[in-house]
Write a structure and sequence with these properties.
Layout (H helix, E strand, L loop, with lengths): L1 H13 L12 E10 L15 H16 L3 E4 L4 H6 L2 H5 L5 E18 L3 E18 L4 E19 L2 E2 L7 H24 L3 E2 L1 E5 L2 E5 L11 E6 L3 E3 L6 E3 L3 E12 L7 E8 L10 E5 L1
Helix pairs in contact: 2-5
Length: about 290
């Protein structure tokens, strides 16, 4: 009886854990550019915007990032122009990170093995992909890497019987997907390594309005720590500007969220803490507690 009671007590302690999930605030990611740097399928009437290799890579990367459940993917017109601008232009993007990629290698070959009574035909596709991950807040490239992927299919005929190996268009997808699979996990880890950061947009009638809403994982009752930005200094060795740690000001508690799209979502909060300069809200940011 004692053993049964002990086991039941243990189960009661463990059961509440089932069904619990780690709630993660989603990062906003914009895939800024994906180009085809190879000469594959580039004829006289080549159209860069409708390049099939570029589109395949872009769609596959978007699908893999969306499947992780950790990101809100944003489409941005004229993103390359914004990236080219100085700091303020980067902030206009409205994303936490930008991904820049290119297909650096792509090739297809067909090999055959002819014997007396049989023949084998093998199609092989190789793709190489390069990725750069840019942190919008700092403008720094925080991750850069490249990988290669392969895909092949074979068909064998004996005395004229067996399958025939026609052109297999899916091999392109498989090779690009294999290359991107080697990079996606590192992209996810790099994006999630740093704490989620949001911004104070306005203060009206005692309501503190912040960026982000339900689709990003912000819920009523959630609390965030508000910081005043630290001083920005220049590293004399690299010439790169570095933001020093911020000063804790107080705590924001979400009272309500609203908005129709990830870009337009906002949250209304109450605030407890030190007084802030309402005319200089761009000097503040908030982070998960």
């Amino acid at each position: 009886m004692k053993k049964a009671l002990t086991l039941m007590a243990a189960l009661l302690m463990v059961l509440p854990m089932f069904g619990q999930t780690d709630k993660t605030l989603k990062r906003k990611v914009a895939i800024g550019r994906f180009t085809n740097e190879t000469q594959y399928a580039k004829g006289m009437f080549y159209d860069r915007e409708n390049d099939p290799i570029r589109k395949q890579a872009l769609d596959i990367l978007s699908a893999k990032l969306a499947a992780s459940g950790k990101f809100i993917l944003l489409e941005r017109d004229g993103l390359e122009e914004l990236i080219a601008e100085a700091g303020e232009g980067m902030q206009k993007i409205g994303a936490d990170y930008i991904i820049l990629g290119s297909v650096t290698k792509f090739g297809r070959k067909v090999e055959g093995d002819q014997r007396v009574f049989s023949q084998t035909k093998t199609q092989t596709v190789e793709a190489g992909v390069s990725i750069r991950l840019v942190e919008v807040a700092s403008g720094l490239i925080i991750y850069s890497d490249e990988a290669s992927g392969f895909a092949e299919t074979s068909a064998k005929q004996t005395l004229g019987l067996g399958g025939s190996a026609g052109y297999d268009a899916t091999l392109s997808d498989k090779a690009i997907s294999a290359a991107l699979s080697q990079l996606v996990e590192n992209i996810i880890n790099k994006c999630m390594d740093k704490p989620w950061r949001g911004y104070l947009l306005a203060v009206e009638d005692g309501n503190y309005i912040i960026s982000g809403g339900a689709s990003q994982g912000i819920e009523t009752g959630a609390t965030f720590t508000l910081y005043r930005k630290g001083k920005t200094v220049t590293n004399p060795q690299t010439g790169i500007k570095v933001e020093l740690p911020g000063t804790k000001m107080g705590t924001l508690t979400v009272a309500a969220t609203m908005g129709d799209t990830p870009e337009s979502e906002i949250s209304f909060c109450t605030y407890e803490g030190n007084a802030i300069e309402e005319e200089h809200l761009d000097n503040y940011y908030l982070m998960e507690k």
